[in-house]
Amino acid sequence: MSNSQTREMSAILHAKGLGKQVISGERRLDILSSLDLEVFPGESVAILGSSGAGKSTLLGLLAGLDIPTSGELDLFGQSLKDLDEDGRAGLRAGRVGFVFQNFQLLPTLTALENVLLPLELLPGSDHQIRGREWLTRVGLGERMNHLPKQLSGGEQQRVAVARAFVTAPELVFADEPTGNLDRGTGGKVIDLLFELNREAGTTLVLVTHDHHLARRCDRCLKLDAGHLAVLHRDEVEA
Ligand SMILES: Nc1ncnc2c1ncn2[C@@H]1O[C@H](COP(=O)(O)OP(=O)(O)O)[C@@H](O)[C@H]1O
Ligand SMILES: [Mg+2]
User: Fold this and answer.
1) Is it the case that residue 149 has pLDDT exceeding 80?
2) Domain contains 109
3) 59 pocket-lining for ligand 1 (C-beta < 6 Å)
4) For a designed S-S bond to 148, which of 26, 105, 206, 220 qualifies (C-beta 3.0 to 4.6 A apart)?
5) 21 lines ligand 1 (CB under 6 A)
6) What are 37-48's pLDDT values in tens digits?
């Protein structure tokens, strides 16, 4: 078997000719066109691109939250084409985590309750223990029963990181995870993400404007005019 075949078989995520068009008023907008991407277990991939380039749209498609206009996507070796919304959610359950720029915690739930949410659909009687362990792990052992509004931005994002990792997912998507944080606070969140990526072998796909963050990833790609191009390390300025 050739090397490329071996790699293809082991890709955790494989996008082939992915396209996304939307109708905006009278106009047809091609956000993504014929986009190819393979992501392999344990690696960290940064996707850079200017505002409006389609980065969030791409993450939504890769995670099966949104449906492409053309092309195909395999996640964990399964074609998303064959799955409806429930099927895609079932495939993600426990295996995919998310971290968003604006944290997206539920405002009426405590930090602990937010972290417990992704475990709700999964079997097991140790959820409370796992939730507490994860909040302790991200440095919020003393803030378990706080509501999001009682936490700082950095603390809220650490709750979101705990929520993303509590199921021991194979793949974590992060959409500008430091976008709403100051540099120091953002740096701590990023240290945490990479520490967890190393320890648990979690695959990371992250979208960012932040070149510091991108340089820490194994690979950098740039989304431009609907396509992904490889960025070499020296093209990602410090
Ligand atoms: N459902 C939609 N309808 C119309 N335009 C959209 C829709 N979704 C995204 N867009 C447009 O597509 C472009 C890419 O959006 P987005 O993926 O959010 O970019 P990024 O995350 O790189 O800033 C933007 O110009 C945005 O306004
Ligand atoms: Mg975006």
Assistant:
1) yes
2) yes
3) no
4) 105
5) no
6) 999 999 999 999
Nearest-CA residue for atom 16 of ligand 1: 54
For residue 89, the enclosing domain spans 41-67+81-236
Q: Given CA atoms 44, 137, 76, 87 in this order, what sign does their dihedral have?
A: negative
Is 204:193 a contact under the CB 8 Å cutoff? Answer: yes
Ligand nearest to the CA of residue 55, numbered in listed order = 1
How far does the centroid of ligand 1 lie from the alpha carbon of residue 63, in Å?
Answer: 16
Ligand 1 atom nearest to CA at 50: 22
Q: Report if residue 19 sits inside a domain.
A: no
Number of domains in the chain: 1
> Which ligand is nearest to the Cα of residue 32, counting in written order?
1
Angle, helices 183-200 vs 153-165, to 10°: value is: 10
The reported pLDDT for the residue numbered 2 is 47
Q: How far apart are CA 212 and CA 187, in angstroms?
A: 9
Cα distance between residue 85 and residue 95, in whole Å: 16
Ligand 1 centroid distance, CA of 57 (Å): 6
Give the CATH number for residue 203. 3.40.50.300
Asked which of 55-69, 90-104, 122-136, 221-235 is least confident by mean pLDDT, the reply is: 221-235
Instruction: Tell me whether residue 21 is in a domain.
Output: no
Render pLDDT for 155-186 as a digit per residue (tens, 0 to 9): 999 999 999 999 999 999 999 999 888 888 88
Check pocket membership of 55 for ligand 1, CB cut-off 6 A: yes
- At 233 the pLDDT is 77
- What's this model's pTM, rounded to 2 decimal places? 0.92
Q: Mean pLDDT, the chain, as a whole number?
A: 92
Q: Whose CA is nearest to atom 24 of ligand 1?
A: 52
**Residue from 161, 230, 235, 172 nearest 205 by CA:** 172
